[in-house]
Amino acid sequence: MINALAGRFDDVVVLQEEPESKALFVKRRARRLGWPTALGQLATMIVSRFGKRVTRRRAAEILVKYGASVELDPSIPIRRIGSINDREGRAQLQALQPAVVFLISCRMLASKTLAAIPCPVLNFHAGINPQYRGLMGGYWALVNNDLENFGATVHLVDEGVDTGATLYQARQTPTSADTMHTYPLLQTAASTGIAIRAVEDALAGNLHPVASAAPSRQWYHPTLWTWLWNGLRRGIW
């Protein structure tokens, strides 16, 4: 998606955060959901690393179909930061003076960080909002027999988890070869168009948020036992 945006717009700069530690991830989840669930989610994440090895062929098919690449264009400048929410991250934003900020798979912006950004802040979410906020939106849509809401959303950013007003959505239909390991890739590769349109609107001062009366829910990684149950009983991996 970054490659697609850089191919359409001038002066794209990437601020790349350091990955969050798994220990911090588990502690935060445990506070919210309890230790059994947090550890079960961690187990799924660990197993998924091995699962990616058996889905390489399908991943390659998706990339070819949508003309995408998982390798960042080397001509795109990258500035590495610890976190978008620390002093360095905010200083980098202020120095860049961006016309629009587009978030992809980064930490939630703290209220102090969000308040310091004078331009529109957009986010790409691999799920249909507001029904599938949070994580693994495509997977949970399938688990809920809600195929029509397998897709992705570009939305404005506020202080909630994917609760900002929707700008655009794109829906896809996964194949039987897709799994939890390829759903996000499919959702992202097939949605570069809505990302470009949203940025175009922001730069033109022509954003048109869309309200939704659909039920709102935040989702997380499935626990290992939930993932195995849905895979073995229903073929949703």
Rounded to an integer, what's the Rg over CA atoms? 18 Å
Q: What class would the helix/strand composition place it in? A: alpha/beta
N-end to C-end Cα span: 25 Å
Helix content: 40-55%
| Unreliable parts | none
Query: How do the helices and strands follow one another from N- to C-terminus?
Result: HEHHHEHEHEEHEEHHEH
Shape: globular
Question: What does this entry show, briefly?
Answer:
This protein has 237 residues and is an alpha/beta fold.
Describe the SSE topology.
Layout: H1 2-8, E1 14-17, H2 22-33, H3 35-51, H4 56-65, E2 78-81, H5 87-96, E3 101-104, H6 111-115, E4 121-125, E5 133-134, H7 137-143, E6 151-156, E7 166-171, H8 183-189, H9 192-203, E8 218-219, H10 224-234
Parallel strand pairs: 1-2, 3-4, 5-8
Antiparallel strand pairs: 4-6, 6-7
Helix pairs in contact: 2-3
Overview of this protein structure:
With 237 residues, the chain is an alpha/beta fold. Helix content is 41%, strand content 14%. The protein is built from ten helices and eight strands. The two termini are 25 Å apart.
